[in-house]
């Protein structure tokens, strides 16, 4: 009886630990990319595990999922598209360029 109560008390902590571990691993697999676009700077969080990028544009947090691309890498949510190739990127909203000529910045050491 005591063992069952102890097990019932410990299991939620173990599950919570798994959740924190998964969040930690997820953060470790996310790269922060800094771009300088013609219009303004852009910070993009790239999560290769989930095949997603996220960034703030027009005061909204956008989460885009990787889609099909003939060249480069394309992420979209159906409205916005983040397309990158090499060190360059472009952001579209409904097929209209909203951030152009985005150049990946190298980290300063």
UniProtKB/TrEMBL annotation:
Indicate yes or no for the key word Signal. yes
SUPFAM superfamilies to which the protein is assigned, alphabetical: YdhA-like (SSF141488)
Listed A to Z, the keywords are: Lipoprotein, Membrane, Palmitate, Signal
Domain called C-type lysozyme inhibitor: residue spans: 35-96
The record's annotation in InterPro entries points to: MliC, MliC_sf
- PROSITE patterns the UniProt entry points to: PROKAR_LIPOPROTEIN
Signal peptide (from-to): 1-21
Output this protein's name.
C-type lysozyme inhibitor domain-containing protein
* Annotated source species: Enterobacter lignolyticus (strain SCF1)
Q: What is the lineage of its organism?
A: Bacteria, Pseudomonadati, Pseudomonadota, Gammaproteobacteria, Enterobacterales
